[in-house]
Amino acid sequence: MEKTLIYQEILKYVKEGVYFVDIDRKITFWNNHAEQITGFTAAEVLDKYCYDNILNHVDDKGTHLCRQGCPLHKTLGDGKPREATVYLHHKQGHRVPVLIRTYPLYDRDQLIGAIELFSDEKPPTLLMREIEDLKVLAMTDQLTGLANRRHTESILSSKLTELEEFNTPFGVALVDIDHFKAVNDTYGHDVGDLAIQMTVKSLVNAVRSSDLVGRWGGEEFLVVFSTVGFKQLQQIVERIRMLVESSAVQREGSGIQVTVSIGAVFIEKAASKEHIIQMADQLMYQSKIEGRNRITLATLD
User: Fold this and answer.
1) Considering 19, 48, 208, 218, which has the largest number of Cβ atoms within 10 A of its Cβ?
2) Confidence class for position 1, pLDDT limits 50, 70, 90
3) Model's pTM, two decimal places?
4) Interatomic CA distance for residues 4 and 130, integer angstroms
5) Active site residue 44
6) Domain assignments of the chain as residue spans, ordered by start
7) CATH topology for 139-299?
8) Are the CB atoms for 147 and 214 separated by under 8 Å?
């Protein structure tokens, strides 16, 4: 068996898509993994030309590379290997992200074609993008888009560290929607979700950009206030209460309103997260006992 045929027999079974083109860009070899990745059999592509837009590569910007100079074509032009992340066209119509590498093929010193290897393992740029998306997902509450409990706790920990290192006071408020079960029981969980989302928007609009609003539980939210004084904390927390009270979910021509009970803690000395949360919780329940739709604020004891 000729050496070329032996090499092609070996390349049939490598775990990457492999194809050869001659100097005119006619496809002369198409391995098994290329069939798996693209859906096109060797019989469908051999002796066709890559510029026939079989794979129809596009880049991140939607540029049709087969028309405007794909890496394989450029390698045929200058004999230089290339690497790129592209999206090929699968036989079933969808796009597949692939990392491609192109190399020139020589017979002695004569350029006779080129080879492209492509892998459907996630290219590094896509992997990084997915990792970043997963990081955001891991820190975010699905319904509200707020920081979830774990992320909120980590922010609280960082504020305690700042307090110890730089003596910067901060605040924490636990906010609970009043009579939320009655909203769910009366109007249904869909309206309950809308009430939560409405409350969240009022909360976010009431605080400063440096503050963090996190979802603590079902209808509970924890707000961490950066570098704040007692009076300013009182003003912001009262603004939260007022904005929620004056908001309403519109449903079938009527407005559904909710109120919140708030327990807020001003922190100017080192303490544990558990102690801060416990105190905020006690103050919030004091607000409920005293009639709801109110704030109870105290300095950390």
Assistant:
1) 19
2) very low
3) 0.60
4) 40
5) no
6) 3-125, 139-299
7) Alpha-Beta Plaits (3.30.70)
8) yes
Q: How far apart are CA 129 and CA 100, in angstroms?
A: 18
Task: Look at residue 170 in the predicted model and tell me its pLDDT.
Answer: 97
What CA–CA distance (Å, rounded) separates 179 from 75?
Answer: 69
Q: What angle do CA 184, 255, 187 make, to 5 degrees?
A: 20
Q: Is 220's pLDDT higher than 90?
A: yes
Residue 51 has pLDDT above 90, yes or no: no
Q: What is the pLDDT of residues 53-62, one digit of tens each?
A: 677 888 877 7
Tokens at residue 116, please?
A: 């492209």
CA dist 68 and 25 (Å) reads 14
Name the CATH superfamily, with its identifier, for domain 3-125.
PAS domain (3.30.450.20)
Pull the structure tokens for residue 169.
């006071």
- At 135-158, the pLDDT tens digits run 666 788 989 999 999 899 999 999
Q: Which residues pair with 221 in a beta bridge?
A: 175, 215
Looking at beta carbons, which pairs linking 272-280 to residues 24 or more positions away fall under 8 Å?
273/153, 273/156, 273/157, 273/160, 275/300, 276/156, 276/172, 276/300, 277/172, 277/174, 277/222, 280/172, 280/173, 280/174, 280/222
Q: CB-based burial of residue 140 (10 Å sphere; 0-12 exposed, 13-18 middle, 19+ buried)?
A: middle
